[in-house]
Every structure is written in C-alpha cells, then in structure tokens.
Specification:
about 425 residues; 14 helices; single chain; nine-stranded mixed sheet; alpha/beta
C-alpha cells in the first residue's frame, strides 16, 4: 500500500448525516470539530494498514477534501450552520449602543462576561482569596467597597479536595451561612482540553440553574492535564477550552494559575494567556504580608491594590483533641515594600517594579540608564512592539521615573548630583 489510488480505496466513507448530526463530539454548538473527525479517519486508516508516512503524504489531504465535501452537504441539508452567516457587518453606531451589554460582576474589577485569571505563587492564598471575592457576588453583597451584581458561582476545585469543606466551614463561621447560589464540584477530574467533558460540565451547570454566572477553575494546571504550558499549542488548547465553556454557559470563566520561579514575570507559561483574559488579578506574598493587584482590566482601570491576611478559624477538635482549623481572608494594610501602596499608571508601575527588583540586591548606586533600559523593554512587551527605533518607550520610562521621583511617597531618590544613580530608602 502506498500509491494515492490505494489510499483512496481505503478512505472510510464519510457520511455528513452520520458524523455531523448524531455524534456530539464532532459537532458542538453548530460548529464542526475538524480535528476530531480527522483523528477518527486517521485511526481508521491505520487499522486498514496505512502507515503514518502514507497518511501524511496522501491520506491527510484527501481526508480534508472528503470532510469539506461532507460539510458542504451538511450545510445544504441544514444539519449544521454555514459559518459564513456569522460574518454579519453591523454599523459602528449600532454596535456602540451595546456598550453596557456585558456589565460587571464586581464593579470596576471583574466583568460579568469573558475569561479571566487569578495568579500567584504557591501558598499565596489564591484559593482563599477567590472564595472571599466570589461569595459576595452570589450573596449580592459589596466586596472591598465595590458594588456587585448577583450571579451564581460554580467552583470547580481540582486540588486539595479533602480540605475544601473545612475552608467553606471556616468562611461560614466567620461570615455566616452562604445563602447565595454557590455550587462546588469538589475533587473530580476535569479537563478543559476535552470537548466532551466541557459539554458535560456545561450541562451540569445548566441543570443546577447556574448558567450565566461565574465558573472558577482551580487550577489551570490540573484542568490542562499533560500539556506544555510554555507552548502556544499547549496553553492555547486550555485557553480555547475556557472560551468554549464560557460560550456554552455564558458569564465569566476564571482560571486560577501559578507564577513561575520568578514571580515578577507574571503568570507561568505562554504569554498568550494574559492576552486572552479580560481581567487578571495577581496575588502576592512576601515576608511583609499578602496583597492583591488588578494587573489587567480590559474595560476598566487596572492598578487597583489591596492588602489582606489570613485568620485561623478553629472548627473543632479531632479524636486526639487537637484543633481542626482552616483560614479565612481578612482585610489588612498593603505591605510597604511589597506591592506599591499607591495607585500608579502603567509606565510608573513598570519603572517602580524594576527599581524594587534591583533593590533586593542593592539599595544604592542603582544606575538610571539600566532602569530605563529594562523598563522600556517591558513597556514594549506590554504594547506588543518588536522594536522602537525612535526610542519612544525609553522616553516614556524616563518620564515615568521623573513623576515617581517628584512624589513624596516614593521610596527611592537620586543618589548623586548628576542624576545617574538611584538609592532606595
């Protein structure tokens, strides 16, 4: 076997009505899952003696042609939608009238629709914070002084299942019963890379009456399975799964994720995750305390910051009469020297972070040129720029540094008369 005509002879018959009408793994919300169809045909080829080399050379292109033909037949029969119908042009003025359509779950912080992330290092209390932030949404209560829109909350807890009931009990001990629509999937296996599992979870959410609410996936790493989070392909598949779930049930899907070894570089893995998110919240922990920062708000103002701490709550005693405890989030001052306590603009934040990172190893003689160079590089990265021949980002970095130095609350200063180095208090 190996000639094109022999491959054709072993091409499985593709029936549009068979795999596009009845099998949900091939069609989801009127859209064809081409990759699953191709995989099904490829496996059939292998069972009929076609080698991987023959498949790559002849089978794959011929399978694509067969699928295109089947899709055309299915569109004509009304089995699936013609994707071209989605290209509906709307007048800009009409679209502008929809500007409040999405709204906020937490005013100015968390949109009511879209994809978001909460990220931070291990032991930073991301899960405790997420519970503290989302229960008020379900209870229609303010959070940190911000108004909320009542929405159902679904927590998909994929790690630490044994201790999660204690976490919920501690919350109720501190704040009273959770009366709003908060539902938990605790300890089950769930993959955002599996369309069938996404559909099953979506059906469960709908059956509970929680569609259109907030779905928290804790954590992204568990929901990704065996994937390479540093690659666009691996992380891209997880992001696509999150978007499919959001499109299926509506509302907001929140992904809890970790930072890497260098927490200053943001969420771990491929940078496309940040680009895909409508909202991003950083949870930080230093020796000085814990803090939160709204690092991205697509339709609002980022840079908002809060301090918090964990209070230990005793829930009872075990058989040895030792205390059974868990924790709850309580408000606290923003740690000085951790995340800056002032509201800063984007460029000021970049410059501030660069200086404070350098200050971990030296508090005097910090070269201004080095700070400006690194800050300009990060500003370019944030803007998606590959080059800056006119030096605009360096100018923006210098301007942000001047503004910071003119602020009485800034913890650094010019270290010499010619303005070439900085010192940190």
């Amino acid at each position: 076997m190996g000639a094109p005509n022999e491959i054709v002879e072993h091409m499985p018959e593709v029936d549009a009505g068979e795999f596009l009408e009845s099998d949900r793994e091939f069609v989801w919300a009127g859209e064809v899952n081409r990759s699953k169809i191709l995989d099904s045909i490829r496996q059939e080829h292998y069972r009929n003696g076609v080698s991987p080399e023959e498949w790559a050379g002849f089978g794959h292109p011929l399978a694509n042609k067969a699928i295109d033909k089947a899709i055309s037949e299915a569109i004509a029969a009304g089995i699936i939608l013609d994707a071209r119908e989605d290209f509906e042009l709307v007048h800009a003025s009409d679209l502008a009238c929809q500007h409040h359509a999405g709204g906020w779950a937490i005013k100015g912080i968390l949109p009511a629709q879209g994809l978001g992330s909460i990220f931070g290092p291990s032991t930073s209390a991301k899960g405790f914070f997420a519970l503290d932030m989302l229960v008020p949404v379900a209870n229609s209560a303010p959070w940190q002084g911000h108004r909320t829109k009542q929405m159902p909350v679904v927590i998909v807890n994929l790690e630490g299942a044994a201790s999660y009931p204690s976490r919920l009990k501690a919350y109720e001990t501190k704040h009273g019963p959770i009366k709003g629509p908060v539902f938990v999937l605790n300890g089950s296996s769930f993959l955002l890379t599996d369309d069938a599992q996404i559909e099953e979870l979506a059906a469960a959410i709908e059956a509970t009456g929680a569609a259109g609410g907030i779905v928290l996936i804790d954590t992204l790493a568990c929901a990704g399975g065996a994937f390479d989070e540093n690659s666009s392909e691996g992380m891209g598949a997880v992001i696509a799964g999150g978007k499919k779930l959001q499109q299926r049930v509506g509302g907001m899907v929140l992904l809890v994720h970790h930072t890497g070894k260098d927490a200053t570089k943001g969420a771990r893995g491929w940078s496309g995750l940040r680009a895909a998110c409508d909202s991003e919240i950083e949870v930080a922990r230093t020796e000085l305390g814990r803090s939160l920062r709204l690092t991205k708000s697509k339709d609002g103002e980022d840079g908002l910051e809060w301090g918090f701490d964990l209070d230990v709550v005793q829930l009872g005693v075990d058989e040895d009469m030792d205390p059974i405890t868990s924790c709850v989030v309580v408000e606290a001052a923003i740690p000085v020297g951790g995340i800056a306590s002032k509201k800063l603009g984007r460029n000021q934040r970049v410059v501030y972070d660069v200086i404070m990172e350098i200050a971990k190893s030296q508090t005097a003689g910090i070269e201004v040129d080095a700070v400006v160079k690194e800050a300009a590089r990060r500003i370019m990265e944030l803007k998606g720029m590959e080059s800056d021949p006119k030096g605009n980002t360096r100018g923006a970095a210098r301007s942000a540094l001047r503004d910071l130095l003119n602020d009485e609350g800034t913890p650094f200063f010019m270290d010499d008369e010619d303005g070439s180095t900085l010192g940190v208090c």
